[in-house]
Each structure stands twice: as structure tokens, then as C-alpha cells.
Design a protein that fits this description.
Blueprint (H helix, E strand, L loop, with lengths): L1 E3 L8 H4 L4 E4 L1 H5 L4 H8 L3 H12 L5 H11 L7 H8 L6 H10 L3 E9 H11 L3 E5 L1 E4 L9 E6 L8 H14 L7 E5 L5 H6 L2 E5 L3 H6 L2 E4 L6 H6 L7
Parallel strand pairs: 2-3, 2-7, 3-4, 7-8, 8-9
Antiparallel strand pairs: 1-9, 5-6
Length: 241
């Protein structure tokens, strides 16, 4: 396990940074997959979409632009595809332990994802999170081309797009709503879409992150299980770690 930080702890970590609000990215963080790539797999265009995803997560193209490009390729995916994905998407190792630990400490837990609302809501239920924020897609009725309800390939304009600035906004607005200092917030993610959120949090950790994020995040941890993050909150002296 590789751990790189910009400060040296004294005593327990929790004594330095008490945490009351924790935000997590979803894809490749709380779950192992990139959901948009799984959608692409369902209609056989994995390579085209995955290539854009990789560039976006490494910050080579703007996230919103990349999202719209990928969604356009997914026009025609069956609207009930989410039920199949719920059977195949896997929750990351240690995620349940980490969330249970945080909930046991009374921490407000949040998933904020550049992915999609049906999966974020499902994950919220699976892990017992307090909030879920993600992108909403337009579903079109059957037509001459697609004889079933399907994804239109567009974002629903009635909802905000989860770009980097919005992730930071969610962190700051929830902290304000619950009267929590930003110094007592915790954020975890792997992509360039997470960098503003990681930078705004009291403790922002890039988890097994993309190359650019490894370089630019406040801290990074490259381990095998999300439960490793408990060490950062409890420290080596705690019997709970």
C-alpha cells in the first residue's frame, strides 16, 4: 500500500482532523466499474466510449464535453438497463466497512458522481448513505427507430450536471447546511472530476487515482481496500483501525 501525504501526523489522525461529513465519488471508487463504460458494453461500443472516459478521467478533455460525447453514442440503450447493471456492478472492497465505520461515528456520508442517478440511488441504498447526487438522463418513448423506451443520449436539463465545480458545491453546501467546518470534511475520488472537491475538503484523498490526479491531489492512497482509509481517520494508535 502506498500512502503519500502533505503533512506529518502526531498522535492519532482523528485528533488532528475530526470528520463529520464524507463525500465519495462512485465509479472506480465506491464501485469497481465505470458505469458509462458498462452502458456502452450493453450495445457493443465499449472501445469508443472507454477511450473518451480514460481521457476525461485523466483531465485531457473537459468532463462535460466528454460526457455529452459519450452519451450521444449511447442513444438507444434500453431505459431499463439499470436493472441489469445492478446485477453486475460490484461494490469496491472495503467500501461497506468504511461506510459502516463512518456511520458509527455519526459522519454524514454522501456519494456525488459524474455517473448516473439510478446507480447512485441504488448505491445509496446498498451502503446506507445519507445523500446521493448524480447526472439525470432523458428517457425517450418508443419510436420508429427504437421500439422500446430508451436513453435519448442527452442530459436532463432540469437537473445540474455533476462537473468538478458542482462536486465542490455539494461539499461546501452540505457543510454549511449542517454547520460543519470544511476542516472537518473528508472527500475521496479517483478522477480529474474530483480534484476541486478533494482540494476543498479538510482531508481530500485520491484513491487509486488516474495519473493527473495522483500528481495534483492533496493526498493519495494506493491500496487494495477502501477500509485502508480508516487508518487516516483513526490512526495507528486506535484499536478500531
Amino acid at each position: 500500500m502506498e500512502v503519500i501525504f502533505d503533512f506529518v501526523p502526531h498522535g492519532t489522525w482523528s485528533a488532528i482532523r475530526p470528520v463529520k461529513l464524507a463525500l465519495f465519488d462512485m465509479d472506480s471508487t465506491l464501485i469497481n466499474e465505470e458505469v458509462i463504460d458498462e452502458l456502452a458494453r450493453s450495445i457493443g461500443i465499449t472501445s469508443a466510449v472507454s477511450a473518451i472516459t480514460a481521457r476525461a478521467m485523466n483531465g485531457e478533455i473537459e468532463f462535460e464535453q466528454s460526457l455529452r460525447e459519450r452519451l450521444a453514442l449511447l442513444r438507444g440503450v434500453k431505459a431499463d438497463v439499470w436493472e441489469e447493471l445492478k446485477k453486475t456492478v460490484t461494490i469496491a472492497a472495503g467500501a461497506k466497512d468504511l461506510i459502516n465505520y463512518l456511520r458509527g461515528r455519526g459522519v454524514i456520508t454522501v456519494v456525488v458522481s459524474g455517473g448516473f442517478a439510478p446507480m447512485a440511488s441504488w448505491l445509496k441504498e446498498q451502503l446506507g448513505l445519507d445523500y446521493a447526487f448524480a447526472n439525470h438522463l432523458v428517457v425517450s418513448p418508443p419510436n420508429a427507430t427504437y421500439t422500446y423506451p430508451h436513453l435519448s443520449g442527452e442530459l436532463n436539463p432540469e437537473y445540474p450536471i455533476v462537473v468538478p465545480e458542482y462536486k465542490q458545491h455539494v461539499l461546501e453546501s452540505l457543510a454549511q447546511e449542517h454547520s460543519i467546518p470544511l476542516s472537518e470534511t473528508f472527500a475521496v475520488g479517483d478522477g480529474s472530476n474530483d480534484l476541486l472537491m478533494l482540494g476543498a475538503a479538510g482531508l481530500g484523498v485520491a484513491w487509486r487515482a488516474k495519473e493527473r490526479v495522483q500528481r495534483e491531489a492533496p493526498q493519495r492512497l494506493n491500496g487494495t481496500t477502501l477500509s485502508d482509509l480508516i487508518f487516516l481517520l483513526d490512526g495507528p494508535e486506535s484499536g478500531d483501525a
